[in-house]
Amino acid sequence: MSTKSVKEIVAFCEELFEDITFAKARQWKEAESGRKVIGYMPVYVPREIIHAAGMLPLGILGGGADMEVIHGDAYYQSYICRIPRSTIELAITGNLDFVDGMMFPSICDVIRNLSGIWQIMFKDKYVRYFDTPQNFEDNVGGVFYTNELREFKEDLEKLSGREVTDEQINNSIAVYNENRDWVNKVYDYRSEAPWNAPAAEVYLLMRAGMVLPVEEHTQLMKDYLAAVAAEERPMRDNCRVTLIGTFCEQPPLNLIKSLEMAGCYIVDDDSMLVTRWLLEDVPSDGDPIENLSQAFLHHSAETAAKYEVSIESKGRYMFESIRKRGADGVIFAAPSFCDPALLDQPMMETRLKAEGIPYITMQYAENSGQMQPIREQAGTFADSIKLWSAS
Amino acid sequence: MSNQEITKSPSQILQKEMITRNYDRITGGEDKVCSNFVPGNLNELVMCFDFANNLPEINAIQNAMRKKSGDMITEAERNGHSEDVCTYVKADIGMMAKGNIAPNGKPFPDPDMLLLGYSGCFTFLKWFELLREQYKCPTVMLHVPYDANGKPTKNMRDYVVKQLKEDVIPMMERVSGVKFDIDRLREYLRKSAQAEEDIVWMLEQSKRKPSPIDCYFGGIYYMGPSFTAFRGTDECIDYYKMLREEIQERIDLGLCAQSLDGDMPEEKYRLVVEGPPNWTHFREFWKMFTDMGAVVVASSYTKVGGVYDYDGFRHDPENPLESLADYTLGIYSNRNLPTRVDMLARNVIEYEADGLLTNSIKSCNSFSAGQLVMMREVEKLTGKPGAFIETDLVDPRYFSAANVKNRLESYFQMIDQKRRAGGSAPAAV
Question: Dmax over Cα atoms in chain B, in whole Å?
Fold first, then answer.
């Protein structure tokens, strides 16, 4: 039974969230000689393999709302989103100096090219552009992906100087299965009682999972759920929304708070999908690489960065979220200049229109400051849902 | 503007005829149509199934040069597409909304299939998903992994080949009703390789002083047949032979590069250019360069449909599918930034350029993201100054002539100063 209060847990998460020096990850590294830290960007990397190699996977999601970007703007034109410039800023200012390697998943051209900037600027670091398949057949995309995973494992073996065994990966798979299970429990709980688990708190709790060792993060979620169950908070007359578009550059925390303050309970979102990208438990016996590959190919989430083979199944994940979470509508909040989110959005809008599901669209940058227009827009949306859905 | 009468050369006339004929074929209704993208396009394979090859970027470019793309983009934005995203996509979506009229004035038919060659540009994926919504036609993905370490691995190559065998070719057979004949593909690849020898010869002539050709504004025209629906054909071979003879004649006569106004009187500055051009003000943009005596001796954009002059790639009829894989893996925009830097720096040095000019395109992250770092790297490696201008592909709202001109003038002044200081040798006159 946890003895920590919600306030204490949230304060701890907030401290991690605000710390752009990643002190907690540094402490982990310094605790034992030879430890390595592998940074990764959104959307998905197989953290199980990093964990099995005895390394700490560290989620790098940009510099956030408060970090002043001084150097980063000299690296990117004004019409490119903010996450690469603030990530470069983090590196140039020494905040990532303890990170031994960086992974750049295949999400868009900006993150792809950021891998090249890393290769040019940080020649002593391990850099991996992590290409996941857009072909989901076992003998085509599956073979490619298992080979990529094996190559990645070998890279980590070289970096750590020790072999990574199947048994170790299977153990790590089990650890991450448990973590995903608790992430899902938190999401389930928020959906059932969003007044008791506000979106901003859940967001901070998930952000903690980007920095903490997975075992600590799992315990933190257990503690949080125990703590929130012990506290009853007032239920508001809010509508229920799914938030879509936040899978890479993160919205300011104030945006999330503003949406709820304006009358929209966020009952699902696509932020930090790495925590729940794999939709089912990965078998923790047998060939772990094969199992991770199968999970990606056949049991993984849908985002704008992933090709949907059939037109009929496009949007399926969004509708499943709406159904499962009982959402009344959708808020599309996309980072400015985000090609994947903004190009995907019209296709999703068409599908929502066809089903008569209300939605609104908005754009943000990780450092957006003006929340009044957001509150007004979300407030009007919430009012309209309550007015029209009650009839 | 000069009063000099511009006479189109035989190769220019031939290219125009080829393009017109292709649009007539696409819109003629007799052939099935396969749409696919320019970078890494598999024209030889498309021809094996008797498809007419429709390339949406070329349609957007044609519309931009005819000053039609602005309205099309606005139309797409009115229909919910963000101002922030790729204007090629919006020009295409807007063109559909406005009747889908081809440059020859006839309506485009709905494509019979979309070949989503996902090479070098993430946006392609979304673009064809959007078109699939409209056309609801068979769509096949060809995922081309990114050359993140400069050279494709065996795993990448095998993956591309396997997709061709298991997915792409079977769908093309199904849609076209034509059985795949690998010997037919070999024959096309043999012809591609033949034309590629002349392409490389052509690209390398701008090492001469003065350069007989401009390898950006002019180079785009020269690369046209190879990058589009003609690579692998006899007329493509004929075109490059003809072009080679014309360039040889220019060399023999000691002529400077050709501009819109005829032959440039002198070559004051030699540049390497990174990034695509602006298409909405293409002539005005080009004229700024020629008015200032600047010739582009090499450009990355002429490598976006295939890199032939860097690591010796030629299509190989003996290994047809592997060769298609190598081709599509190796295009410029599918290569990592250090490799791009190496290519550009080598160009600056080997072509004795005064420096690297980057034309950064607002809506093309595949090129633009990282260009500032690349420019500084090339400066470091070559000791030559770089400059940066910003325009867009086909959105006229993002072309500011005064800004571009100002930056170019400042850049040339900088080069002059460097020369005076002994840092940059003057170009030949």
Answer: 67
Query: How buried is residue B7: exposed, middle or buried, by Cβ count under 10 Å (0-12/13-18/19+)?
Result: exposed
Listed residue (A134, A164, A166, A165) closest to A283, CA to CA: A166
For residue B179, which phi and psi values (nearest 5 degrees)? -80, 140
Asked if residue B5 belongs to a domain, the reply is no
B153 contacts in chain A (CB < 8 Å): 151
- Set of chain A residues whose Cβ sits within 8 Å of the Cβ of B389: none
pLDDT tens-digit profile of A281-326?
999 999 999 999 999 999 999 999 999 999 999 999 999 999 999 9
Between chain A and chain B, how many beta carbons pairs sit less than 8 Å apart?
165
Residues for chain A: how many in total?
A: 391
The minimal CB distance from A120 to the residues B123, B156, B338 is found for B338
> What's the CA gap between A302 and A313, in Å, rounded?
10
Of A76, A140, A307, the CB nearest to B167: A140
CA–chain centroid gap for A30, Å, is 26
Q: How far is CA B14 from CA A134, A291, B27, B260, B304, in A?
A: 39, 56, 20, 18, 23
Sorting pLDDT into bands at 50, 70 and 90, what band is B260?
confident
**Nearest beta carbon to residue B372 from set A76, A110, A304:** A76
* Residue B353 CA: distances (Å) to CA of B154, B271, B380: 36, 5, 14
B298 neighbors B254 (Cβ within 8 angstroms)? no
What are A16-28's pLDDT values in tens digits?
Answer: 999 999 999 999 9
Q: Is B332 found in the same domain as B221?
A: yes
* CA atoms of B274 and B286, how far apart (whole Å): 15
Determine whether the interchain pair B123/A337 forms a contact, defined as Cβ–Cβ distance below 8 Å. no
List of chain A residues whose C-beta atoms are within 8 Å of the C-beta of residue B374:
120
CA distance A75 to chain B (A): 6
Contact call for A134 and B365, based on CB within 8 A = no
CATH number for the domain spanning B191: value is 3.40.50.11900
Q: State which residues form the domain around B30.
A: 10-182
C-beta neighbour count of A192 within 10 angstroms: 12
* Dist. CA A203–CA B51, nearest whole Å: 51
Q: Is the ipTM of this complex over 0.90?
A: yes
Q: Which of B242, B248, B247, B354 is nearest to B294 (CA)?
A: B354
Nearest Cα residue in chain B from A148: B155
Asked which of B182, B214, B240 is the last residue of a domain, the reply is B182
A9: its two tokens: 């847990």
- Residues from chain A contacting residue B341 (CB–CB below 8 Å): 120
Q: How many domains does chain B have?
A: 2
